[in-house]
Amino acid sequence: MKLAITKNHIGSNILTMTHRNLLKTLHNPDSLSDVIIEPIIFTLLFGYLFGGVIAGSVHAYLPMLVSGIMVQSILNAASGSGQQLREDINAGVFDRFKTLPISPIAPLAGQLVGDIFRLFLSGVITLITAFLMGWRSTVNLPTLVAALLLAIFIGWSTSWIFALVGLVAKNAELIGSLSMIIILVMTFLSNAFIPTNTLPRFIQTIVKINPVTLTITAIRTILQTGSWGSNATMVLISGGIIILIFMPLTVFVYQRRD
């Protein structure tokens, strides 16, 4: 009987866990800063400090900056999956979930579904901040939404990697610190904030093979020209491959967890 109830209410279980994880984000200053504060700070900081040097003015720099900040912020928000999962595991919350008449997969699924809303909020905050600074989209609303959804998709696919790390690693703080360092290094070694032709040749080679560069280029092309392009297709395929690999792997590790 319990199994039948669990199957019939799995969708409701996942939504409940999603709501719980979103509330946890809202009441956790660290998690909230990753989603809301960071996009605002980085957009203001890079825009006003480096806009004049790199592009001649803040207004001229914003079309380049928006895509870089959006991808960086969404990836940073995605990294919160691993840290939040490990915090719940270490606090014994997941052990209590096992005693409830809910689907066993609901706590994990609720975390990953909640990430979609967190990533969406981070991307929208970036766009709003840039708009208030003077940036104006040169494409129509559906195209702008397509660029945002592509960034969210690649961020959500990356969430599965961080979720797996959260299940395997034992220290939540270490997960958060390493995730932030990796994302910052990969973002700065990309075309997010500066023209790559100004870099030394060996760094240009690193930038070209950096997957973050591919993602930013795809989104920048959509935002500036309105065209989808082969880069966007490659990002879509790459995100799908990540999900196909890490979703079943993460679920397997989660189900085998003691």
Overview of this protein structure:
This protein is mainly α. It has one domain (2-256). It has helices at residues 2-8, 10-26, 29-55, 58-78, 80-91, 93-98, 106-132, 141-168, 172-188, 201-209, 211-225, 229-256. Helix 4 (58-78) runs antiparallel to helix 9 (172-188) and helix 5 (80-91) packs parallel to helix 8. It is elongated and about 60 Å long. The relative contact order is 0.14.
Task: Quickly describe the structure.
By secondary structure, this protein is mainly alpha-helical. The chain is built from 12 helices and no strands. Residues 1-6 have low confidence and may be disordered.
What features would you highlight for this structure?
mainly alpha; 258 residues; elongated
